[in-house]
Amino acid sequence: ANVTVTDLEELQELLLVNIEKNKHLVTGSVRAEVLKWGEDVAEFQPPPDYILMADCIYYEESLEPLLKTLKDLTGPDTCVLCCYEQRTMGKNPEIERKYFELLQADFELEKIPLDKHDEEYRSEDIHIVNIHRKR
Q: Could you tell me one molecular function GO term of this UniProt entry (predicted)?
């Protein structure tokens, strides 16, 4: 696969370190790019086949920019896999609920059952959701 890993500007060095440490596993290409939610995504077009999200649901003020970026990045055939740890402290349950409520305006969601998760890494508080644009 040709992979683009993204994060904020201040984490690019860490992405490059991770790419270097894992280059022996790469059979395609991998590059690191800055992606700030809510901003222009033209350089990431055409829409990718897959978007893998991990632990992106945590700040209430980031929900709208995250959703805008997802809408701007995805095409009709893009598969988004969203993995997150369910947190029960503070405002986390409310933020999670709001995220999925807002997401359903433009996307269809399918929760991946726990028995379909990798046996070694599965946990009751780790969730994976398959997300597609509504047709």
A: methyltransferase activity
